Amino acid sequence: xxxxxxxxxxxxxxxxxxxxxxxxxxxxxxxxxxxxxxxxxxxxxxxxxxxxxxxxxxxxxxxxxxxxxxxxxxxxxxxxxxxxxxxxxxxxxxxxxxxxxxxxxxxxxxxxxxxxxxxxxxxxxxxxxxxxxxxxxxxxxxxxxxxxxxxxxxxxxxxxxxxxxxxxxxxxxxxxxxxxxxxxxxxxxxxxxxxxxxxxxxxxxxxxxxxxxxxxxxxxxxxxxxxxxxxxxxxxxxxxxxxxxxxxxxxxxxxxxxxxxxxxxxxxxxxxxxxxxxxxxxxxxxxxxxxxxxxxxxxxxxxxxxxxxxxxxxxxxxxxxxxxxxxxxxxxxxxxxxxx
Length: 340
Known about the structure:
The chain is an alpha/beta fold. It is 46% helix and 11% strand. The protein has 16 helices and nine strands. The protein has helices at 8-12, 41-58, 106-109, 112-123, 135-140, 156-162, 187-200, 202-211, 228-232, 237-248, 256-263, 267-278, 282-300, 305-311, 317-328, 332-336; strands spanning 29-35, 63-69, 75-76, 82-83, 87-88, 97-101, 127-131, 173-176, 179-182. Helix 10 (237-248) crosses helix 11.
């Protein structure tokens, strides 16, 4: 695809009061975004807006961008807002960066031609990447083996079931040679800030951050979620050790006695801690963890209810189905077919 013509100033460079002098000698950096069905709008806009702001501050085209979909028709985001692309994605598309904007139901959103195009672009020496759940497309392209990569934390459980030989990291973003990934949401802005700083310097990166009202610069190695202690609102070491053990071994057959031994307290003391700090029992907390895990697998994979029950540590599919219905108000089968 050819770079945009002389009319591009109106599209890529907006007027603004603030200005940052930037010395540029090469052509603008071309970034192509691929929108899959039900992509996350926040991740897409968080990626493209810092590029626009960088151009505005510099008063020139540092970046150009184009948007593609599977067939050239408007792509509908996860919140229902459609975005009209520039064109249909074709294997010969040219770019410095080709980034897939993922979203909900990521496995269903990846069409065969997308994986083929990503693989071809990467083999030709281009940089490819995924925003939010875009790593699904990269995995299907077969280019993530041995790489550091990430995707949204909610989708990691389902991803691991589909690609057991790949291990995503729960980082804000990852850059591994010519493969870029981020967890989605505003983490896409953090990834773009890194790109801006590497190409045009820290001063421009800082001013883009100020214009976007981002309070601080996050590095790629930061965890996607706040600490377990902050999430639970407690610093009780025995409680945190027990819950960390539950989360790590959610698919295994673990019991409360084992959690108490790991936490270094007796069973009754552990039960008191759960009741006082979390208003629940250890067994109920573990059951809720497993049910949330099962919900994620039913959403993100094509696993059967029996397979999901086993993966969540339930002794039988009937026990899983009964517990699932009690918590969520419908059976696993009904949930897995909801909206289809």
